[in-house]
Amino acid sequence: MPEGIGSVPPEARRSGNVTAQSLPLAGPLLISVRRFADARGVFTEAYSRRDFAAIGIPDEFVQDNQSMSVATGTVRGLHFQIAPHAQGKLVRVLRGRVLDVAVDLRAASPSFGQHVAAELSAANGLMMWVPPGFAHGFVTREPETEVAYKVTALYAPDCDRSLAWDDPSLGIDWGLDPAEAVLSDKDRRAPRLADLSPAF
Ligand SMILES: Cc1cn([C@H]2C[C@H](O)[C@@H](COP(=O)(O)OP(=O)(O)O[C@H]3O[C@@H](C)C(=O)[C@@H](O)[C@H]3O)O2)c(=O)[nH]c1=O
Prior knowledge:
With 200 residues, this protein is mostly beta strands. It has a domain at 60-195: Jelly Rolls. It is 5% helix and 40% strand. The chain has 2 helices and 15 strands. The protein has a 7-stranded antiparallel beta sheet. It is globular and about 50 Å long. It starts with a strand and ends in a 12-residue tail after the last helix. Dtdp-4-keto-L-rhamnose binds at residues 65, 67, 76-77, 79, 89, 136-138, 155, 184, 186.
């Protein structure tokens, strides 16, 4: 079930095989897609432009990313790209389990600095829509977890930014002893929210 803060009641939107549930912040969505099971296994439409547009994700996706993290407790994030290459991300898990987190960095947003989080797994099949203007990250809860996500803008290293995953001002409960987090050098050095360049 979704975890998060705030008190906006969840509401569901449906189109075809897709159901989207709002989260406690305006913008991100938790999405499930119908699974067709038979004797051979399972089939799903992982993405359909028609149905995703109908539930509120009109963006065009231009790149598909995939990562595999060996260890449980691997934290990737928090990451975002600034304008003109801000990215929306449609995130799902192909193998294993993560806690997926989106932090609102939209300058004019009443929920600036707040976050939502939800467990995505290969077993539950849930996806998280992380709109442009949000920082995104996840912690793996199983070894060899594979995450796949479609993005709405190409990778632009000059516009790529990180935010400290463990910034206390964000108040994110990663369910992890920080000393045991597996991190990239980039993420270990990431600035806190208060130290981000105001130009982002
Ligand atoms: C994100 C990205 C990285 N790379 C390269 C740069 C680097 O050498 C290597 C690993 O990059 P990173 O360390 O940034 O990978 P990673 O920490 O997995 O970064 C990702 O984290 C998650 C949470 C996100 O939301 C993504 O948008 C992305 O930022 O891959 C690309 O070539 N294209 C890309 O789109």
